[in-house]
Amino acid sequence: MAQEINLETEFITLGQLLKEAGVIETGGQAKWFLKETMVLVNGTADDRRGRKLYPEDIITVPDNGQFIIKKQERL
């Protein structure tokens, strides 16, 4: 089951998602993590930390699980 990441903005970058999900500790680690680890965005490998992720995108990180982007509902 994919872990949901709620967006408060229009999009989140892949580097921000990795930090938000606890995969990396700092945003600066994203560049190196993505060079060494094949991360899938909607089933396609992507190593760009600035890749924009939108609601319903599915991100798979080996040994860390799967994440789905959700738009946070406004009350």
Automatic annotation (TrEMBL):
MF term (GO), any: RNA binding
Which named protein is this? S4 domain protein YaaA
Q: Which InterPro entries match?
A: RNA-bd_S4-rel_YaaA, S4_RNA-bd_sf
Keywords in UniProt for this one?
Answer: RNA-binding
State the NCBIfam families in the record.
YaaA_near_RecF
- What organism is this sequence from? Latilactobacillus graminis DSM 20719
RNA-binding: is it a keyword of this entry? yes
* Short name of any one Pfam family annotated for the protein: S4_2
Q: Which PROSITE patterns match?
A: S4
Q: Does the keyword RNA-binding apply?
A: yes
